[in-house]
Fold:
Amino acid sequence: MKNVGHINRIMRFIPGLILLSILFWGEGNLKYLGLIGIIPILSGIFDVCPLCLISGNKSCKIKK
Structure:
């Protein structure tokens, strides 16, 4: 069940990559905060946002 539209996918994927880059460029224990970037990347790839499923929001067009 897809609930993420095309523009929303891009708006999730790019910040996810930026967050994930903290893992490689950050220093100390703070760099592991970049692992949070995996969540928006996966929701952008698979077109499913778990929080949107719970709230019932959809940003994709429904095909009839």
